[in-house]
Amino acid sequence: MPITLHPLSRRRFIAGALAAGAALAARRVSFGAATPDPSRVVLFSDIHIDADRSKVDRGVNMFDHFQKSVSEVLAMDVPPVAVMINGDCAHLLGHVEDYKQVMGLVAPLREAGLPVHMIFGNHDNRENFWGSIPADEKRVKAVEDRQVLVVETQRADWVMLDSLQKTNGTPGLLGEDQLKWLAAELDRRAGKKVIVMVHHQLDERPVPLGLTDTKALLDVLLPRTQVKALLYGHTHVWTFEKREGLHCVNLPAVAYPFDTTSPTGWVDAKLSDSGMALELHCTDHAHPKHGEKHQLVWRG
Fold first, then answer.
1. Of 2, 45, 209, 250, which sees the most CB atoms within 10 A?
2. SS3 category, 170
3. Which residue, among 297, 298, 264, 266, has the nearest Cα to 279 in the 3D structure?
């Protein structure tokens, strides 16, 4: 269930940060006179925030990693138009207290004027998420219990999907109803450029650990050339491939890698009429992939 967290006033920011117990300065953070770049979006994936902000997994404190990423975004010379979190907002089981920590951590982004769009991963919990995050009137209501979100930006429309099948279960599923909605929604946007986001990766193995209905999703996306890219997470790696000209990008985790050689961090996405430039900001600036750039050229 993707959801939008809208920008906060200073008073609401301070109240939210204090309620969450976040170790963040309760002061107004802004980009000064800088105008947001309507073609720039910040991408986070797999943040895995725990109720206990001292919690460590695989040698990483997830709270510190995400807080560092937020501080770097707030230090950007030109702000993005939005921040998107591609699932696994919670550490393992999606407890209510996990989401309270998430709300505290994203509060500085919202207070700086940035909307934050969030999507479910397999470590999230629908009921706890719904009970912890304010209702979003812009959520698409067409798919019952698997609500999705469409975010329109200057150079592309972002369609965020819900692949959560079972909390703390590894594989993901979109389901027939959501795929039917997606096909119809894409057909309505035939004259636009579209980027699709989902938490689980493409997985065509006999026993998938990613998206179990990968083929059905590709059957929707590949013939619709208005879809230029598919972004996903889940595997905690930073990889690229193409399917019939469709860019498929596996976003790295903000939290921790499964393979210690993989980077963690966030991605700065800049769109143009002909493609999208992606730049990786590693948590460890000494990592060899820190600052790595990829230029995606849209298919016709």
1. 45
2. coil
3. 266
Its pTM stands at 0.91
Which residue in 216, 219, 192 sits closest to 298, CA to CA? 192
7, burial (CB in 10 Å: exposed 0-12, middle 13-18, buried 19+): middle
Sign of torsion over alpha carbons 46, 51, 53, 57:
negative
- The single-letter code of the amino acid at 79 is P
Contact yes or no for 19/165 (Cβ under 8 A): no
β-strand 3-5 against 60-61: which pairing, if any?
unpaired
What is the SS3 assignment for 135?
coil
> How far apart (Å, rounded) are the C-alpha atoms in residues 90 and 127?
13
80 residue type, one letter:
P
Q: Which two tokens mark 98?
A: 């996990």
Q: Dihedral sign, CA of 176, 180, 181, 186? A: positive
Grouped pLDDT means (10 residues each) for the chain, 300 residues: 68 42 41 86 98 98 98 97 97 97 97 94 92 67 77 97 97 97 97 98 98 98 98 98 98 97 98 98 98 97
Q: How many CB atoms lie within 10 A of CB 206?
A: 4
Contact present, 269 and 40 (Cβ < 8 Å): yes
Task: Please tell me the predicted confidence (pLDDT) of residue 27.
Answer: 35
Instruction: Tell me whether strands 56-57 and 246-250 are parallel, antiparallel or unpaired.
Output: unpaired
> Could you give the CA distance from residue 291 to residue 64 in angstroms, rounded to a whole number?
20
In terms of DSSP bridges, do strands 37-44 and 80-86 run parallel, antiparallel, or are they unpaired? Answer: parallel
Q: How many CA atoms lie within 13 A of 94 on its CB side?
A: 25
For the chain, the distance separating the N- and C-terminal CA atoms, rounded to the nearest angstrom, is: 31
56-57 and 37-44 beta bridge pairing: unpaired
